[in-house]
Every structure is written in C-alpha cells, then in structure tokens.
Amino acid sequence: MLSTWCWWWLFLIIPVVIGIILGSFFLFMKRHRGSGYFLSKFSAFTRIRFNHLEKRRQTYCPANDKCQCHTNESAAHIEPNLTCPHRSPTLYMSFAGAAMIVGGVRTTEWRGSMQQCHYNTDDQFDALFFTDPAQCFYLQDPDYNWQGITYYRNLVALYATLYQRVILIGASLGGSMVCMCADLATLSIAFNPILDPTLLGLPWRIMGAFCPARQAQVIRDQVQTTMEIIAGKKTNDDCVLHIHWSQLSAADQRQAHRIIGGGKYKKPRQTKCLTSVADFDINNPDISSSSGVHAWLHQCSRHALAMHLKRTDQLIPLLKRHLTARSIGLTSISSQLDEKERQNFTIEFPLSTKLLHQLDKDAIAIDLS
C-alpha cells in the first residue's frame, strides 16, 4: 500500500506531466504546417491572439512592384494610403475559405485565377487577400471583438472610393463575407457560401469553423439585407452578386434553400432578394449581367465547387464571363494590335485605263461646277 507522501507526489507529478505533454504538442503544432489549423481553433474558442496567424490576416499585392506605400507590418490593420499614386483601376478583394482545415494558411487564395483571367491583357489590377485567423466567418475584427462585419464592410466601402472597380471573390466561409459586402462592390462572386452556419453538421462546426448561434443570426440578417439592396437597385451604382452552388451536395442544398426555396421544409423563395435562379450554362446571358443577384446551380456533388471547376477547365471561362459585364478590360493586347492594323490597312485595287479616264472627266466636271 502506498504511503501518504507517495499519493502527494502522484497528485503533483500527474498535472506536470500532462502540462508538459500539452505544451510539447502545442509547440510542435506551432512549428509545423498544421499550426494554422490547431492555433485557429484554439484562438477561436479562447480569443487569444497569435502573431503567427495575424501576420497572415491581410496581404496587399499592388500591380506596381515599386509601390512601397503599404508596409509589411500593416497586415493586422491595413489602412489604405490615400496618397498612393500607384493604384490600378481595378482592385480584387479575396476572402479565403477554411484554408487552415486542409493544412496551413493560404494567404493569397484566388491569385492564380486572377492572373489567368488577365493574362495577355493590358488591364492591371491590385489585390488584397484576407484570411480569418479565428475561422469564425470573419465575424471577429483584428481586435478579436465581434465587430468583423462592420470592420470589413467599412474597409470595402473605403476602397470603393479609391478604385474604379472593386471585385469581391470567395468560397465557402469566404463566400459568406462576399455576400455580406456585395452591395458595396462593383462585382461579387461567391462559390458555395455558407449563409446560415447553424445548418452545418456538428462535426464540421466543431472542426471546421466556429460561430456562436447569436452571430449566425447576424450573418443571416446581413446577407438578406445586402441581397435586397442589390435586387432593389438601391445602390448608387449598379452592382451584381453571382452565387454558385453545387446542386448535388446536401450541405449546399441546405444553404441554397434558404433563399431559393424548396428543400425538406418547402421554404418559399425570397423573391425580394433574387433576380434569377438557373442551372449553370456558360452561354446564359445573365452570366454577364451587370446588376442583380443571380444564383447558379451546378451539377456537382462536392462542396469545393471552385476546385472542381478549375480541374475541369471551366473556372477561368466562367470568371471571364462575369468580368466582361463590368468593363474590366479583358480584351487581349494582340487583339487590339490586330484591330489597329486593320484600321490602318488600305486596300488598293488596280484601276483600268478607261476607269481612270472617267474619273478624270468627273474631277474636271466638279471643278467647273
């Protein structure tokens, strides 16, 4: 039988051992690629900030490589330099999805697709990439208060006064914020946005993204208000929101039924929010619409619709069709040069002697008159 002092030693040692194990696990996760995922979960539930994640919150990429108007230390709170002379006409604002769930933080999501859309064109663009360190649908601001919607909407509104065109793009968790800010931008494109986090399954809510029930209501209200403003043309300039959902995905069906109607509970369509709902067709004229809220349903069973479209070479043509409606300037440089050459090119035909003699007589008649 153990003596009393042995029991005391056990009570002291066991917590220390557990603490050492948890501490070692924490340091291991922090140093390796999966740190973004585990730290984001810990940050979401405890509201403790980690500089390792905050440095990835915002990344500004100007088209002009010589632009030094935004310092590298402005990631956490990026304040636009109002005197910056290097701005391009177009600004992309990308909201990353649950990137940390698949291993590490992708700081420049959609950058490759943007470059492909503008390849061989004369239209330059700046880009601002966002990630959500706490993975809570961007509902937390950089000070970790639940003022994320106000923070990001103010940021989009400010940039809209500095650029001719502001384009929002995002998928899943990032698509949610796109739908909440779409009335402030020129063009907004959301793939599989989560408009009601309470409809997510419990495992995904625990392991994927954190959203308290009271904040889920905030998302629902803001999305509906934004869509009604766009559909009712209550903005100063025309703006358009395109939403793409996977028609064969049960998770996306639950989200889509909130606004397009139908589903298990036979919900009515929110006619005040929507301009059109249709099965996706690249040749549909509404793909290039410059106003309204358009929902597109794809024959896809995956929530990662954008990835599926990219692998099947459908994503870039789709994005280009959206962009052409907003005069983004996607005409290729080679096409412009060909057109200029055609305008400057003069076709010369050999004239017969009889025709030349007739032209000379006509010219003399005109002079005499």
UniProtKB/TrEMBL annotation:
Keywords (A to Z) from UniProt: Membrane, Transmembrane, Transmembrane helix
Domain of life: Eukaryota
Transmembrane segments: 6-28
Name of the protein in its database record: Uncharacterized protein
Taxonomic classification: Eukaryota, Metazoa, Spiralia, Gnathifera, Rotifera
